[in-house]
Amino acid sequence: MTDLPTTLITGAGRRIGAALARHLAARGHSLVLHYHSSGAEAEALAAELREGGTHVTLVRANLEDVASLADFWKGLPPVTTIIHNASRYTRDKLENFSVADLQAHLAVNLEAPLILTQGFMAQLPMGAAGNVVVLGDDALGWSISPEFFSYAVSKHAWVSTIELLAAAVAPRARANVIALAPTLPNLNDPEGLFARLAAQAALKRTGDVADVLAAVEYLLGAIGTTGQVLHLGNGMATALKRG
Length: 243
Prior knowledge:
- This protein is an alpha/beta fold.
- It is built from eight helices and seven strands.
- Helix 1 links the parallel strand 1 and strand 2.
- Helix 3 runs parallel beside helix 4.
C-alpha cells in the first residue's frame, strides 16, 4: 500500500477548512474535501490544488441529515485521516432555544462526526495508522457560554466523548480534539469582539489560523497521543478563573 496520506476534511470549502486543505496539500496529502452549501468555493479550491499536483476528491453532504451519511463513503478513495472541521454555530439561550435548533447543533457538531468516524474506521486500509481530529472550542473553557446554549452543549459533549472514541478506534487509529480559540470573525460578530476577547485571555490574544495548522501538524505526528484535548484558548479559561 502507498505511504502517501489521504485526508478528508469536512466543511473544507472556506475559512479554516480551506486553510487546512492548502496546508496539507503542500505537505503531500491527497485530499477528500467535504462541503454542503459552499459548492463554488469548494470547486475553486479543488481546481487550485489540482493545478499544484494534489489529488482532490469532492463530496457533498448535509451533515444535519445524519441518516443520509450511510452512503457518504461510497466511491471515495481510501482515507487515512479525517478532520472534523464543519460546525454549526448560532446564538441562543436557555430561555429561547428550540428543539429543532438544538438537534441541528447536535447533528452537525457531534452526531455526524461520530457517524463519519464509524464509516472511516470501516474503510481504513489494513495496516494503515488512522487519525481522527475533531475541531472543538476553547473560547471560554470549552465554550461554556449560555449566550450560545445549543452550540455550547454540542461542543462540550466532546469533553467526555473523546476518551471513549479514542478507546473505540484503538489500536488502528488515534482520536484527539483541538479546542480552538476564537480564530476567524463571523459576519454577525459585533465590532470589537475579538479585541475584547483578547483582553480577557491570559495571553492577551485570540487565535490565528496558523495556530490550528500547527496543532494539526503536531497531532498527525504525535503517534503516542490519543484521547486528548489540545487547548488553543490562549488561557482564556485560566484568566477567568483567576479573575
